[in-house]
Structure formats: structure tokens, C-alpha cells
């Protein structure tokens, strides 16, 4: 092999090996959370957890990639702010309940893949009965990135004390629209917010003018207290809040939802 060719070959090998090493190190890093990620239960044990994506009761109908445990993981400042909110709501006769917290990027990727399969309509009757699945991207219900993957966004609601358990979802059971009256849609021990969680419908917009009376008051009860503690509500989802002073505003993590992922 001539010298110039040999040098080019060795350079190519070096680039390949170096790239592989960087990729491997990145993959190893993604298996663990930064030290300032915590299990919410360790900071605010009274907050209920119903992590929907660890179960088949979600808009896809199967447990979601990356949810190794039904566990709420968030950044430490988010957990501390939620603990303050919980102390306030307990004095008012309520407790918080989280549906989702940190969400790995692999879960978001699964959402994108699912949305592109227009033949999979298994959970349509509950979660998006009035939305054409082909419109989920353009309508903003599905996106390639989620604030949840940054660790400071949570989906949550309020439950009246004393807490009554929610019955488990049975795969294959008859589905009711997420915007149906509370007595008709899937039972949830949450106070009535006008729609169920993850309802792909404009009625889920926090200040939708069609939501009035007790349902409107319940949404504001949650929204006003969380905003007073530094959270920002997503206007299209009454359950979705992000801690404004999030420590990772531009980083999307992919470690699994599991206690073994925590390093702090």
C-alpha cells in the first residue's frame, strides 16, 4: 500500500474509532441522570403518582418505551416547588397527583412513530375521538421534542381528600370520550377538570370558554397556586406545567425512568 493511501486509510480508521468512542460515551451517559434529578416521592411523599405511560392506559394503548418503573423523576428545584404546592393544597383538603414527569426521548420517539401509523386507532375513542390521527402533528398534539425530557415539566391534577383509589384500566374495555361528563368517562379520583388527562381536544385548553362553573374553578385552583410558585401552564393542556427556572432548558435526556437511573 502506497504511503499516501496508507495515511488516508489510517486517518479514516482513527475517525471511525474516535466517533464510535464518542457515541459509546454518549450512550453510557444517557443511561444515568445528572445528580440533580430526584425521585419526587423522596421529596414530597404525599403527592400521589399515577404514571400513565408505565401502563397501557394511554393514547397508544401499551406501556411506553423507557418507563421501567411507574416513578416520577424531576429536577430537584421542580420537586422542591411541588412540595411547597403540596403543603398548601393539603391545608385546603386536596392532594396533588402526577400523571407524568420526566419523559425519556425514546418515549417521545415512540409517540412520533405511532402518530405516523394511521392504521393504529386502538385508543382513539377515548383520547382523540374528534381529531383525525393524520392531523396530530399539525394540531400540535405530537412533536419530536417534549419539555418533559428536560426534567422540569410535569402533568398533574388535584385529588380531594380523603383519597379514593382509581380502578385499574382493563385493556380492551369499552372506551368513552375523554371530554364526556365525569360520570361517563374513565373513572379518575381527580376533581372534575372538564376532560380526562391527555385529552386531544380543544376542550382541554386550560381557559377554553366552554369550561365553566366548578370545572373552570378547579382548573384555576391548580393553575393559580402552581403559577405562584414559579410554574408556567401550557395553555393547550390544563394538566401541563413547567418550572420556569428549569436547570436544563435546552437539554433533552434519554435515561430510563427508574431508580437505578438516579445518581444523586
Key descriptive features of the protein:
two-stranded antiparallel sheet, 5-stranded mixed beta sheet, 6 helices
Structure description:
It contains six helices and seven strands; from the N terminus they run H-E-H-E-E-H-E-H-H-E-H-E-E. With 264 residues, it is α+β, with helices and mostly antiparallel strands. The strands form two sheets. A five-stranded mixed beta sheet has the order 2-4-5-7-6, covered by helices on one side. A two-stranded antiparallel ribbon has the order 1-3. The longest helix has 28 residues, at 3-30.
Write the layout of secondary structure elements.
Blueprint: H1 3-30, E1 37-39, H2 40-43, E2 48-49, E3 73-75, H3 76-91, E4 94-100, H4 105-116, H5 124-127, E5 153-160, H6 213-228, E6 231-233, E7 240-243
Parallel strand pairs: 2-4
Antiparallel strand pairs: 1-3, 4-5, 5-7, 6-7
State Rg: 21 Å
Helix run count: 6
Q: Mean pLDDT across all residues, rounded?
A: 91
List the uncertain runs. 1-29
Strand fraction equals: 5-15%
Largest sheet strand order: 2-4-5-7-6
Secondary-structure element order, as H and E? Answer: HEHEEHEHHEHEE
- Could you give a short account of the major beta sheet? 5 strands, mixed
Fraction of residues in helices?
A: 25-40%
Which structural category fits the helices and strands?
alpha+beta
Per DSSP E runs of 2 or more residues, the count of β-strands stands at 7
N-end to C-end Cα span = 53 Å
